[in-house]
Write a structure and sequence with these properties.
Blueprint: E1 3-4, E2 11-19, H1 30-39, E3 44-47, E4 65-75, E5 87-94, H2 121-124, H3 134-146, E6 149-153, H4 163-166, E7 174-179, H5 180-184, H6 192-198, E8 205-209, E9 222-227, H7 232-241, E10 244-247, E11 252-258, E12 261-276, E13 282-295, H8 297-302, E14 312-318, E15 324-326, E16 330-331, H9 332-335
Parallel strand pairs: 2-3, 3-4, 6-7, 7-8
Antiparallel strand pairs: 1-11, 2-9, 4-5, 5-6, 9-10, 10-15, 11-12, 12-13, 12-14, 14-15, 14-16
Length: 336
């Protein structure tokens, strides 16, 4: 029986889940962001200004969805020598379009003067002390999950972080493997933190974003969400459940498994790789590949062994210019 790993029904909507406006340190107004992204074929933008959660539902119409979000930071210590500090940055994407607060807020963490103007009355009621230590950080993630906020771990390379900083994080929804603003600044992330977390049983989704502050940092990384309609609840549900892939250019049209064989159909690429949690891979290389099949029956049989912990497969697509796309990880129960 054929089982679709990316839903068969519905429509793909192109989304940028990380952007900054004049509400914080971006140079573009929310209206300008909407126009720029719509003109480039995007249907969804999450407005994630620093430290304040500000709904922009007035921008939503039949062809565009403004999602409510914020980016929060937890620094080693607060001071002017930020150049040397490690920091955690997380995007919090709200399941409620009207939400104008989050419980991990602290006014003392706002570092941009103009952002004070956007603190809501609801937000004023909260003051949580954030500290650069793992128990406190995991409490922030837990609180956010309880508020129905999807938590993405942002740009670990720019944050000067390594394996020891992210491996003990609990409750993440996503991890940025591509951040266009950081790439342009010379800080190039990778898929490795995603695999590291997956291999110890933490189900995180790979996310590509722009982290746009200026026009030049727009249109680099995106996600393609498969959903029945362009409504807030439908798009949020699709994101939460992993009905999307992330990319810097290659497009996926179909992804399904039938009789232990995975089939992927896509735009023209030169390489498609199947990666797992262990030393088992498959690879298709060529010119103008638009379809590939991977027989994983042997992988599935061997995954019943006791030593097989947290089995999963995921796919990587690379085009002739080196642009990449990643599916999320698919686990054993989804492949049988």
């Amino acid at each position: 029986m054929r089982k679709y790993l990316i839903p068969k029904d519905g429509k793909f909507y192109k989304a940028n889940l990380h952007v900054h406006t004049t509400v914080s340190d971006g140079v573009m107004t929310p209206h300008e962001v909407k126009k720029m992204y719509q003109d480039e074929g995007y249907s969804v933008v999450a407005f994630s200004d620093h430290e304040v959660m500000v709904p922009h539902n007035y921008l939503t119409d039949d062809s565009f969805l403004a999602m409510t979000a914020t980016e929060i930071s937890i620094n080693q210590y607060w001071g002017w020598d930020f150049e040397f500090q490690k920091t955690y940055h997380f995007n919090l994407l709200s399941g409620d379009p009207e939400k104008d607060f989050y419980k991990a807020f602290n006014k003392n963490n706002i570092w941009l003067g103009n952002s004070f103007d956007y603190i809501s009355e609801n937000q004023e009621k909260h003051s949580f002390i954030k500290e650069y230590q793992i128990d406190n950080i995991n409490e922030v993630i837990k609180m956010s999950n309880e508020e129905n906020l999807l938590v993405t771990y942002n740009h670990p390379v720019w944050s000067l972080q390594d394996y020891s900083d992210y491996i003990n994080l609990e409750g993440l929804w996503g991890v940025e493997w591509f951040n266009n603003g950081c790439v342009q600044g010379g800080f190039i992330d990778s898929i490795k933190p995603v695999d590291d977390l997956l291999r110890i049983g933490k189900n995180v989704f790979p996310v590509a974003t722009d982290d746009a502050h200026y026009p030049v940092t727009c249109f680099g990384g995106f996600v393609m969400v498969k959903a029945d309609s362009l409504t807030y609840d439908t798009i949020f549900k699709a994101l939460k459940e992993g009905d999307f892939y992330s990319s810097t250019k290659p497009l996926i049209e179909e992804l399904y498994i039938e009789d232990g064989i995975i089939t992927i159909k896509c735009s023209q690429v030169t390489r498609i790789m199947l990666t797992t949690e262990r030393r088992y891979t498959q690879d298709v290389i060529g010119n103008n590949i638009t379809e590939a099949k991977f027989d994983i029956n042997n992988y599935l049989r061997r995954s019943t062994k006791n030593e097989c912990k947290y089995p999963y497969i995921r796919l990587t697509l690379i085009d002739k210019d080196g642009n990449e796309a990643y599916t999320r990880a698919y686990h054993l129960y989804e492949l049988r």
